[in-house]
Amino acid sequence: MNRLSLSGVGLVLGCSLVTAAPAQPVIPETIYQWVQSSERMNYFFNKEKLRYAIDEAGQISADTLFVPVIKTYDNIQIEDIRTKRRWRMEPDEMLEDLAGEANYLTIDLARGVVMVDAVDLLDSQLSTLEHSEPGREVVIEELPEKSREGIFYRAILEYEQEHREEIWERTQKEQQNSR
Asked: Do the beta carbons of residue 71 and residue 100 sit within 8 Å?
């Protein structure tokens, strides 16, 4: 009898120590192209919003590609981010429903350089919890062949090569709508 009671108490205590996991966001496959998953993240890019730059003269520049991406996190990655924030004495309360991040990339196709223009931390509804503009540059050629970041960026470049006409047409429509 005592053994059963102690087991029940242990079960209750064990369950109370487990934190509730935030709901995973739904990433629509018709909009986002999945590239890879790691132990901690899933990597997607928005194939519907992929477009070329339009210069000041209104001309399309196929040397520059704008790419919105989403990375969803697992519970360990979420806890790691929150722990690092607490360690740096930064607030983390707003990150209780943290589910991933959106990155806004500009890729200089001629130079093979990715600029991370903005990063939004996202909740499970894909709403922005926090916005930052790191301005980080990454030279794709310098990334190891098997690095997750390198695999991700190379997959975007491969998609761009295979869908140039479609991306060009989408950019033209945007160009016409902005006039």
From this structure: yes
Tokens 């006039």 found at: 179
Packing angle of the helix pair 164-177, 148-162 (nearest 10 deg): 80
Contact status, residue 122 vs residue 101, Cβ threshold 8 Å: yes
What range does the domain containing 92 cover?
18-174
CATH number of domain containing 84: 2.40.128
Q: Check: CB of residue 116 under 8 Å from CB of residue 134.
A: yes
Angle, vertex CA 165, rays to CA 162 and CA 166, nearest 5: 85
107 found inside a domain: yes
Task: Note the pLDDT tens digit of each residue in 63-78.
Answer: 999 999 999 999 999 9
| For residues 130-137, average pLDDT | 94
* 3-state SS, residue 126: coil
- Who contacts 15 (Cβ-Cβ below 8 Å, separation ≥6)? none
Q: Are 62 and 114 in contact (CB under 8 A)?
A: no
In a domain, 1, yes or no: no
Nearest to 27 by CA among 1, 48, 3: 48
Rounded to an integer, the average pLDDT of 126-130 is: 94
